[in-house]
Specification:
- By secondary structure, this protein is α/β, with parallel strands linked by helices.
- The chain has three domains: about 230 residues, Rossmann fold (3-Layer(aba) Sandwich), CATH 3.40.50.1100; about 100 residues, 3-Layer(aba) Sandwich (Rossmann fold), CATH 3.40.50.1100; about 45 residues, no CATH class.
- About 35% of the residues lie in helices and about 15% in strands.
- It contains 17 helices and 13 strands.
- Strands 4-5-13-10-11-12 form a six-stranded mixed sheet, sandwiched between helices.
- Strand 6, helix 6 and strand 7 form a beta-alpha-beta unit.
- Helix 11 packs parallel to helix 13.
- The chain is globular, with a radius of gyration of 25 Å.
């Protein structure tokens, strides 16, 4: 719809006019820094930063009810900058001019309700939010759209060219960073560091296809991250990992979409997502907190973070109920099918600790929980979900296993409704599905495929036939008729079909 077709009273609000005043704030020493430089860590103490709009309270001049109408009417707009995550411009990065926003189709991914069989298996109603429907087939595009939009604005404003964007990745971040950098090719080149042999073929193909310089190094993601951090500290590069605070802002859109898709009634919802590098869970909590502060929602949903037994430092941290006794200890990860979550020392853990405290304090009760699941449960859950009409990746399987565990532990009641983050498209993880079906996981994964979940193609080649069609050599006449009849008959027998009368 065009602006003049909307109700006159809502028109002044549809194109954003809010002038934010964004600043970095250090989570350790509380120093504040302007955004006239791109910062990743505090120049004073080296800790991670978060971005805040110091003019955020001005948004309370609009009622929560009016904000709902603004976002709902924007749903019908055809303004390019407002089609993606920046539908919620005022809540994300209200310092980027609309003409500098990079939109590649990210955001507004579907939520798909589980069928009755899946509901019965878990004992609760739930939905998958399919973030694999983003342009690079993962949730990373949310944060990348914001980070690259700011870099685009920063470069234009400061007349900078030939920047290099760099990231460490387990696969999805590299695909997203390379895609968005390719779109800004006149301004930006990209390089990605991957742990050698720890990324699926499908994920490796993405940054290669986008023209990035792909560098593999020995070790795991945590090792890649240390190298990239050193490069970002010592050289002129744009770091695109979640240490980049602009990415956290973009990923908040996940929360805004859930709220909007459920007509802003989220008090009975339980949002379940893998912890990974801890940026996404930080963003999701932060997003709901903003909605609460503006009166757009009246209650905060529960948040369930999920970690595999093979990479569970955040789960171990929160096993201690007394905050004064908690001690952060990184872990050495073991191989995991949830590759994006195979991180033993998440860079965003200071953010998580701060935001969890604020989230629970907002409602005077515990609303954030961390659960641990087994590798077997992750793979079984992915296969089962996709057997029931979904496109869940291994991290989506981790979310489903996490919801099941939360129900079993009494963290989640049967009257609540789960919203599961399937962070990427299942096609990125075909190699794990193949290993499951063919029962060829290395012992270190601790996965024994269930026979009822395995699947394989069956060759139908009737023994009664001597001639078969081949490419470029089709059968003719009676040979073709016999081939069709014999093959159809054998398929009917295999499928248990009954002849028509």
């Amino acid at each position: 719809m065009k602006i003049e077709q909307f109700p006159e009273a809502i028109r002044p609000y549809l194109i954003p006019t809010h002038a934010g005043r964004m600043e970095y704030q250090c989570l350790r020493c509380d120093h504040v820094f302007e955004i006239d430089n791109i910062l990743y860590t505090c120049p004073e103490c080296g800790s991670v930063l978060m971005l805040y709009d110091r003019n955020f309270d001005h948004l309370n001049g609009i009622s929560g009810e009016l904000w709902k109408k603004i976002f709902d009417y924007r749903r019908m707009m055809n303004h390019p900058a407002m089609k993606g995550i920046f539908r919620y411009y005022e809540l994300i990065a209200p310092v980027i001019p609309l003409e500098h926003i990079v939109y590649l189709g990210e955001g507004h991914t579907p939520i798909v309700q589980a069928n009755n069989r899946l509901k019965e298996m878990l004992g609760i109603d739930f939905y998958f939010k399919n973030d694999g429907m983003n342009p690079s087939a993962s949730f990373k595009d949310r944060g990348m759209a914001c980070a690259l939009s700011f870099i685009n604005h920063f470069a234009i404003q400061n007349k900078i060219k030939d920047m290099l964007a760099i990231c460490a990745s387990t696969g999805d971040t590299s695909a997203s960073a390379a895609l968005y950098a390719a779109y800004l090719e006149d301004l930006l080149k990209s390089a990605v560091l991957l742990p050698h042999g720890k990324v699926t073929e499908q994920q490796l193909a993405q940054p290669l296809g986008s023209g990035a310089k792909v560098l593999e190094i020995p070790g795991v993601f945590d090792d890649c991250m240390k190298v990239v951090e050193s490069i970002a500290d010592n050289y002129h590069v744009a770091l695109l990992n979640s240490k980049n605070s602009w990415r956290i802002l973009g990923q908040e859109s996940f929360s805004y979409e859930i709220a909007q898709d459920f007509d802003y009634e989220v008090g009975n919802k339980v949002v379940v997502l893998p912890v990974g590098n801890a940026g996404n869970i930080t963003a999701v909590m932060s997003g709901f907190l903003k909605l609460m502060k503006l009166g757009i929602i009246n209650h905060l949903p529960k948040i369930i973070g999920v970690q595999s037994e093979h990479a569970d430092p955040v789960y171990r941290y929160y096993l201690e109920e007394d905050p004064a006794k908690r001690k952060w200890v990184p872990v050495t990860v073991k191989p995991s099918v949830a590759q994006a979550a195979m991180i033993g020392n998440p860079v965003s853990i200071p953010r998580v600790i701060k935001v969890v405290r604020e989230y629970n304090r907002m409602t005077d009760q515990k609303r954030v929980f961390i659960v641990q699941v087994m590798e077997q449960e992750i793979m079984d859950s992915m296969i089962i979900a996709n057997r029931n009409g979904h496109i869940a990746c291994t991290q989506g399987g981790e979310s489903m296993a996490g919801l099941k565990r939360a129900v079993q532990k009494g963290i989640v009641g049967k009257e609540e409704i789960g919203v599961l983050d399937s962070t990427a498209h299942m096609l990125k993880f075909l190699s794990f599905q193949e290993m499951y079906f063919q029962d060829r996981f290395d012992p270190e994964f601790h996965i024994n495929p269930r026979e009822d979940l395995r699947n394989a193609p069956a060759l139908v080649k009737p023994a009664a036939l001597k001639k078969f069609p081949e490419p470029g050599k089709p059968l003719q006449g009676e040979d073709m008729e016999r081939f069709v009849q014999e093959t159809a008959s054998e398929i009917a027998n295999l499928l248990g079909l009954q002849k028509k009368r």
